[in-house]
Automatic annotation (TrEMBL):
NCBIfam families: cyt_deam_tetra, PRK05578.1. It comes from the Eukaryota. This is Cytidine deaminase. It comes from Podospora comata. Transmembrane segments: none annotated. Its cofactor is Zn(2+).
């Protein structure tokens, strides 16, 4: 049986104009959008409820209309009940910003352009498997996920690279259900 070796993405620097310019060009982001994602994900960490692990995570979703929706991880003494920052932001977007019955949802104006995740560790941490699947429900596999560390580093991968051979709504004959991130 063949095995696949995964090569980690390069660690880029938030203090390097060349790294940021290359990221923005590759993923069709403006410098302002990149900076807003970085700032918002870092600020979202301040809302983390993580008394058990002390592992703060903030997430920021960027819509095609430049709206940023944030979330932070919320731990529970029963660890499986913990909600990650990425899922908090997605749920907030779906239930508060654009509820399913709203005109915006029906007309598919909620389209995510990028996701940022920020932690206090280095190198950057990627979304967990459950979050990757939740992102898959609402975003294109082409969406860039920018992972910021606790220093000045970051890495970027598309969802398809983090969740290869993914299972999504189209596998159940529901291609238009929940898919709001197609570029």
């Amino acid at each position: 049986m063949a095995t696949q070796t995964t090569i980690p993405p390069p660690i880029l620097s938030t203090t390097s104009p060349a790294d940021i310019a290359s990221t923005c060009e590759t993923f069709a982001l403006s410098r302002e959008e990149f900076d807003n994602l970085h700032r918002s994900a870092k600020e979202a960490k301040n809302h983390s409820y993580s008394p058990y692990s002390k592992f703060r995570v903030g997430a920021a979703l960027l819509t095609q209309t430049s709206l940023i929706i944030t979330g932070a991880n919320v731990e529970n003494a029963s660890y499986p009940v913990t909600t990650c920052a990425e899922r908090t932001a997605l749920c907030k977007a779906v239930t508060t910003v654009y509820p399913p019955n709203s005109i915006s949802w029906a007309s598919k104006t909620l389209k995510f352009k990028a996701i940022a995740v920020a932690t206090d560790i280095s190198p950057p941490a990627s979304p967990c498997g459950m979050c990757r699947q939740a992102i898959r429900e609402f975003c294109s596999v082409e969406i860039p996920i920018i992972m910021f560390d606790g220093e000045n580093g970051y890495a970027v991968l598309r969802l398809k690279d983090l969740l290869p051979l993914s299972f999504g709504p189209e596998a159940l004959g529901k291609e238009d259900l929940g898919r709001r991130g197609d570029s």
